[in-house]
Amino acid sequence: MKRRTALRILAAGAGFLAVRGAGAETRICRTLEEAAAGDGGPVLLVFFSTGCPSCYDDLFEARHLVERGGWPVSVTGVYSGPEDELRSFLEKFAWTRPVVLDRRKVLFRRHRVEAVPFKVLLVAGGAVYRDDPRTDYDTRKEVLRKCLEKTFSR
C-alpha cells in the first residue's frame, strides 16, 4: 500500500498548511500576509496554474532569477485552483517557497491578472513591476531582471 507523502499541519494561529514531499516543505497560505510571515519585505508574486507547462517554467525561473541575483525578494506562488491539485504539484516538483491558495481570486483581481503565468513585483506594498502579456517570455524575463537590478542596486 502506498503511503501518503503529504503531511498537513494546521499551524497555531497562522492558518496555513504545510506540504512535505521529496525532502521539501512548502507552506500553503490563505493570504499574502500569511505567506510573508510578517516580513513586509519585497515579494515577487508568480501567478500560475498546475496544468500549464509555461507556468511551471515561469515559477521556477523566477525563483532562479532572484536567487542568482541575490536580491532580497521573497518569491511567492499564487494559485486559484483545487487544493488537492496544488498539493500534488508541490510534492511532485518540490517547490519550497510559500504559495497563496487564492480560491476567491482576491490577489488575481487586486493585481488585474487575467491569464497565467503572470508576475508582479511588490515593494513597500506597491507594484513596481507587472508582466506585459503582449510581450514574449524572454522579453518579460529581461525587463523583470532590469527592474530588480534598478530597484535593488547598491
Task: List key phrases describing it.
7 strands, seven-stranded mixed sheet, alpha/beta, 154 residues, Glutaredoxin, 5 helices, single chain
Strand content: 15-25%
User: What separation lies between the terminal Cα atoms?
Assistant: 55 Å
Mean pLDDT: 84
Tell me the number of structural domains: 1
Largest sheet: 7 strands, mixed
Number of helices: 5
- What structural class is derived from the secondary structure elements? alpha/beta
Q: What is the number of beta strands?
A: 7
Give the neighbour order of strands across the main sheet: 1-2-5-4-3-6-7
Order of H and E elements:
EEHEHEHEHEEH
- Which overall shape is indicated by the principal axes computed on the Cα atoms? globular
Round the Cα radius of gyration to an integer and report it. Answer: 15 Å
Task: Indicate the low-confidence ranges by residue numbers.
Answer: 1-17, 19-24
CATH 4th-level superfamily: Glutaredoxin
Per the CATH scheme, the topology name is Glutaredoxin
CATH class: Alpha Beta
CATH-defined architecture: 3-Layer(aba) Sandwich
